[in-house]
């Protein structure tokens, strides 16, 4: 990994990133058990540095939901409408949103299931994945964001559940379901049933000392740390299961390795196996493929192989055309340039993190791609 360390050091020196932490491992750690932090002069990145990991939270929320399935508290195909009434009461958009925030819609026909929520096929969308939702937020006089899940994501549905795909806030809704079924907070549940069993001590929804977000202005090569910059947890008053977690990456790596090892600390083997299987209906898979053809918000290397599905927890490689990832590799990312992958067929996993905005910063993407490639080269898989 020495060659890759030189790439990161040069990126830090050039101001592309303020610093980075990256870890990788094979199954038994005999050939690959790697951890490195590289920091710039005006930042501090160490193994103990807590990062705001944004959508890396989604994997942890998925694991928690699957634990409840194992305990018999809920089934994947259960209609969960009554557990998330503020989401399920919304109609489905027909056409565009008007300039006064009004819109045409029809009552939802299909069920909102846990499975559809976990796979972003339940009808929801973010403002950056559906322009109509962005317009609704911008012009609707009734939309008020107050730091709660119900208020922040008080949107109409983008499509009929099960008949489309949009990357969305559905994992925040799954977090609400977990809290209602367990009668506790997501913070408490994660600590009791995910973090403590793995010896994770750094993770929380309520922050901690972390490097400031570095902001890259358009056309500027340098990402400048801005301690006052708002981020994905600014103003949040609840545990957002889709974006709210703070954690250091060695601790996050413990989650990835547990799934890679299939050690049954978090989930039974048959449940973990479900995470690494294609989960979308043909219609939703086609919508995902279309979305990835033009998406500008993704983080990581997503060549246009059209061999993608969604597993339970992340994007799934659904074919053999990728230059290094094996079929059924599970991966995902977070907007401030954080990224993870688990390739059980190759027997490797890894996580990369820095704190750079705007989301999906294209200057950082080559650094993340080079990290993945370096892991496969180190393991003699390329």
From TrEMBL:
Per its record, what are the GO molecular function terms?
A: hydrolase activity
Q: What Gene3D superfamilies does the record point to?
A: DD-peptidase/beta-lactamase superfamily (3.40.710.10)
Pfam families this protein is in?
Answer: Beta-lactamase
Cite the Beta-lactamase-related domain residue spans from the record.
7-359
Answer whether the UniProt record assigns the keyword Hydrolase to this protein. Answer: yes
Q: Which domain of life is it from?
A: Eukaryota
Asked if the record carries the keyword Hydrolase, the reply is yes
User: Keywords, A to Z?
Assistant: Hydrolase
Question: Do you know which PANTHER family this protein is assigned to?
Answer: (LOVD), PUTATIVE (AFU_ORTHOLOGUE AFUA_5G00920)-RELATED, BETA-LACTAMASE-RELATED
* Recorded family membership: Belongs to the class-A beta-lactamase family.
Name of the protein described by the UniProt record? Beta-lactamase-related domain-containing protein
Task: List the lineage, top down.
Answer: Eukaryota, Fungi, Dikarya, Ascomycota, Pezizomycotina
């Amino acid at each position: 990994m020495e060659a890759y360390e030189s790439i990161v050091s040069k990126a830090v020196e050039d101001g592309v990133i303020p610093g980075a932490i990256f870890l990788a491992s094979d199954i038994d750690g005999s050939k690959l058990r790697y951890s490195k932090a590289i920091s710039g002069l005006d930042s501090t990145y160490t193994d103990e540095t807590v990062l705001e990991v944004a959508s890396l939270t989604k994997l942890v929320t998925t694991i928690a939901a699957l634990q409840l399935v194992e305990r018999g508290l809920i089934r994947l195909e259960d209609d969960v409408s009554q557990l998330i009434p503020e989401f399920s009461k919304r109609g489905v958009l027909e056409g565009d949103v008007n300039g006064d925030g009004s819109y045409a819609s029809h009552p939802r026909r299909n069920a909102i299931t846990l499975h559809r929520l976990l796979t972003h096929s339940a009808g929801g969308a973010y403002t950056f994945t559906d322009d109509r939702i962005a317009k609704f937020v911008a012009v609707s006089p009734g939309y008020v964001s107050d730091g709660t899940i119900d208020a922040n994501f008080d949107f109409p549905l983008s499509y009929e559940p099960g008949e489309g795909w949009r990357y969305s806030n559905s994992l925040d809704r799954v977090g609400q379901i977990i809290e209602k079924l367990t009668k506790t907070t997501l913070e408490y549940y994660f600590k009791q049933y995910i973090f403590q069993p793995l010896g994770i001590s750094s993770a929380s929804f309520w922050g901690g000392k972390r490097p400031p977000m570095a902001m890259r202005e358009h056309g500027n090569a340098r990402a400048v740390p801005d301690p006052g910059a708002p981020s994905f947890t600014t103003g949040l008053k609840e545990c957002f299961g889709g974006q709210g977690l703070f954690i250091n990456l060695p601790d996050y790596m413990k989650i990835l390795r547990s799934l890679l090892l299939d050690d049954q600390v978090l989930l039974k083997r048959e449940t973990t196996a479900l995470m690494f299987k294609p989960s979308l209906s043909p219609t939703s898979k086609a919508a995902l493929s279309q979305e990835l053809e033009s998406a500008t918000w993704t983080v990581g290397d997503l060549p246009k192989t059209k061999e993608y599905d969604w597993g339970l927890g992340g994007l799934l490689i659904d074919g053999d055309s990728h230059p290094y990832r094996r079929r059924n590799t599970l991966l995902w990312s977070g907007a401030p340039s954080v990224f993870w992958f688990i390739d059980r067929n190759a027997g490797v996993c890894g996580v990369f993190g820095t704190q750079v905005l705007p989301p999906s910063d294209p200057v950082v993407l080559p650094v993340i791609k080079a990290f993945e490639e370096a892991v496969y080269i180190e393991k003699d898989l390329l």
